[in-house]
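User: Hi! I'm working on a homework problem where we have to compare a predicted structure to a textbook description. Could you give me the structure for the chain below?
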Amino acid sequence: MPKIIIKNLNNQEVDIYDVNKSILQQFAEAYIDWMQDCGGKGRCTTCKMIVHQGQEHLSPLTDAEKKFQKLDRLHQGERLACQCSVEGDIIVSTPQKYKLPHINYSDN
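Assistant: Happy to help. Predicted structure tokens:
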């Protein structure tokens, strides 16, 4: 079973039971708060995550992600949690800009 490791949440692991759901949906089902302003519709970049390992296990870039890349709001190694799904192990972290104030993030 694939898993997501969230590096700056003390390497918290999220087991993936349904590879057809977005990563944002996976986080919600695992009771992990993750910034998102547009409700997971790919209209903003607040659910951005930094992918440290396993980029090859993510679904292809969506049109929304390509648009944000062209606007220079989504860079190499970054993906929108609402727009991609995962089929293998990945390691991600929350960008500094989108850290939630009520969560204690780790430095690793």
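For your comparison, note the following. The radius of gyration is 13 Å. Strands lie at 3-6, 12-15, 48-53, 78-80, 90-93. Good luck with the assignment!
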